[in-house]
Amino acid sequence: MTDATHRSRLRSRARSWGYALRTTNPPPGPIEGLDPVTRWIVVSRAAVLPMTVVAGLVAALLAVGKPGFDWRWLSLSVVGITLAHLANNVMNDLYDTSAGSDTTTYPRALYAPHPILSGLVTRRALVTAAVAANLAGLAILVVLANARGWPVVAFALAGFVLSVAYTAPPLRLKKRGLGEPDVLVVWGPLMVGGTYYAGVGSLPWQVLLASMPYGLLCVAVLMGKHTDKILFDQPLGIRTLPVILGERRARATTLGLMVGFYLLVGVSVLVGALPWPALLVLAALPRLVKVWPYFRKPPPDEPPEGFPVWPLWYAALAWLHTRQAGALLVIGLGLGVLTRVAFGL
After folding, report:
1. d(CA 2, CA 306)
2. How far is residue 342's CA from residue 345's CA, in Å, rounded to a whole number?
């Protein structure tokens, strides 16, 4: 193989990875020819892992400079929650396939290739991936527990139980309208609070409050996704919160969650839970204004040209807002750290 051919192949694979990370889908074409990295990006739904990375960064930037701060335990914790999210994605596919809710006509297999149903990987490979991710997370937990004590175990155990209970029997919180509160707790106090505790060794109430705005954004994405799936979930007896509320009220609730993010950031700044540069999130308001009209009406009958994740519609719109608002929150917190260091504020 010549150097030019090798470089061309690397560029092609990099484009494939980028496409999968942006869209949760492999590039157009037969899946049989996918390289292993693209295949597992799609299988693991790595495109949504930034939601967890942002939660970790929120915790990290709140923790920097606080008494007891240790970057080693903080970094390990961020890796740990990302592994937990990856494992949860894989386990959800396993549970839903076993329960019969994931089929070739269900949205999970429509907006992206289903790991098992599409033949991307075998069930055994998916089980192996879940076990490997959980074992890696367990190893990190042992290290963190040794460094920070039993509260780390409590955070991890609570997160694991809620993640499994989201789809797995006997609780199956998703089917009982409790999946959305589950996500708020996990992406808010558990991820942000737990990561902060691992990095600092303490957890003031201000951090728990500061964890809630981003948690609302994550719930908004899930509400959008479950709203998209109402017509699929209702006949199966999957009573997500949007199924219980109905489409119109679910759309309004999702808008309320996104508005609530800004209100809660403002409250958190007022009480000192977030630094004032966190108000940079207000720069995401134009994005909210842009997606707002779409939430005020039913989805289109057909996807726009080139829309990669159909039949997900509201989920994609909510994700666009969450991605920008979450990034601005991280930047604002970073500016807060710089301000604190430079001016002692």
Report:
1. 35
2. 8
CATH, domain range 35-343: 1.10.600
Unique residue bearing structure tokens 């219980």: 244
pLDDT at position 343 over 80: no
pLDDT, one tens digit per residue, over 263-306 is 999 999 999 999 999 999 999 999 999 999 999 999 999 999 88
pTM of the model: 0.93
Q: Half-sphere exposure of 29 toward its Cβ, with a 13 Å CA cutoff?
A: 11
CA pair distance 176, 172, nearest whole angstrom: 7
Task: Return mean pLDDT, the chain.
Answer: 93
Task: Tell me the C-alpha to C-alpha distance, in Å, between residue 66 and each of 21, 69, 193, 204.
Answer: 34, 6, 14, 11
Side chain identity, residue 234: Q
Which has the closest alpha carbon to 52: 166, 159, 179, 142? 159
Long-range contacts from 88-93, C-beta under 8 angstroms, 24+ separation: 88/163, 88/166, 89/44, 89/45, 89/48, 90/43, 90/44, 90/115, 90/126, 90/129, 90/130, 90/133, 91/130, 91/163, 91/164, 91/167, 91/168, 92/166, 92/167, 93/126
Query: Which pLDDT score, from 0 to 100, does residue 4 have?
Result: 67
Of 208, 182, 202, the closest CA to residue 274 belongs to 208
Domain ranges of the chain: 35-343
CA 336 to centroid of chain Cα atoms:
24
